[in-house]
Amino acid sequence: PVLMDEWGLDVVASGSQKGYMIPPGLGFVAVSPRAMAATERSRFPKYYWSFKLAQKALRQGTTPFTPAVNLFYALQVTLRMMRAEGLEAIYRRHAKLAQATRAGVKALGLKLLVDPESAASPSVTAVLAPEGINAATIRSTLKKHFDIALAAGQDHLKGKIFRIGHLGFVSDRDVLMTLAALESALHTVGYSDFTPGAGTRAAKEVLAHGF
Description:
Number of strands: 6
CATH topology of the largest domain: Aspartate Aminotransferase, domain 1
CATH architecture of the largest domain: Alpha-Beta Complex
Helix content: 40-55%
Largest sheet: 4 strands, antiparallel
Oligomer: single chain
CATH class of the largest domain: Alpha Beta
């Protein structure tokens, strides 16, 4: 949840490729009255990024420049899906999927990059690769044998972690399939310090009985 008014946020931006469940190409921005007032006073050069220009067009039911029209139609579909599910239910689903994923990963003897209670996002789980195994090897094995793509680590974490996304159009089945495939991939790359089936069992427990 991002409580813009309660937290006193003046500008909040988002991208279509995240929780909106469509490809990249659209940007969204919410602007407070105080930020709009600052825009009026601002003398910085701007045109494409002008909130004032965008607001003027919005009042006419249009946009100041040609948008990615095809993504507008996709967005209309996903917003209807989100409205039908309900915002609180969306929050609960993401929390449940995150908990199930992390329970499954830990049952496979793997360690999380950050403490889930204090620093982890409900949208992604970052996992440390086992000692002596490059995370890229695990990712490529999953992709080759199961056509499942996990995200890589960046900068100094490259090769050290892999990331399992559970944001947007993700179901219980997706999490269970990923954990089952991960277990097989770990065996393939030479890591077997876990009980077979432990990952999916731990995740099923969370999915079946809540968290």
